[in-house]
Amino acid sequence: MFADLSSNASPKNPQTSLRNFFILQSILDQAQVTVAASKDKSFQPVNIHSLWTEPEKLSKKSSLASSRTTTKSSKTLTEAEKLEWVKGNGTEEIKELRNTLKRETRSWFLKFLEDALDTGLHASVPEKKGKTKGARVAEPDNHIAETLSQLKQANEWLEKVKNDKLSSDNSLLENIERLKKKIYSCLLLYVDSAASAIGV
Predict the structure, then answer these.
(1) Buried b / exposed e across 118-134, counting CB within 10 Å, b at 16+?
(2) Going by C-beta distance under 8 Å and a sequence separation of 6 or more, which residues neighbour residue 55?
(3) Domain residues of the chain, as ranges?
(4) pTM (global) more than 0.85
């Protein structure tokens, strides 16, 4: 999903990429909750033989069928073999993979968001009534609402990254603050043009 997102993203038309990025982030957040929940549960090996219950009455047909077939007994696993399946449980590997993916998506999205704020989002801010600029394009109301929502999500995501324990780098924090200012500037342009469009 991230490979598709990063290869198909266009800062000049960022709405779809922003939407897909936030979907990916929600999936990663759900995975974090799942891994945390799996740590809380203690693994209890289940004895398969204890799950089997003998039926009290067999019908004539089923008893004939069972008498014709021979069953092979399954090999009993040693304790070492049983523990081999339990060892590690994969949660640390999953956590490490998730953190790596989060770092990669974070790095990519910070660059993409900056490009989108510089080119795609500012260029598509609708103009006030009676004014035209060459780079500005009139936008439908639902597009404006979607863009405002995505800018809000991006700002919330930046705040979350800023407070994340994986984000202790000063240059990253400076980059986040710079992007938040650009988002704020872009929001002001959208709100101003939306207000003038409705005649406020």
Answers:
(1) ebbbbbbbbbeeeeeee
(2) none
(3) 1-19+116-200
(4) no
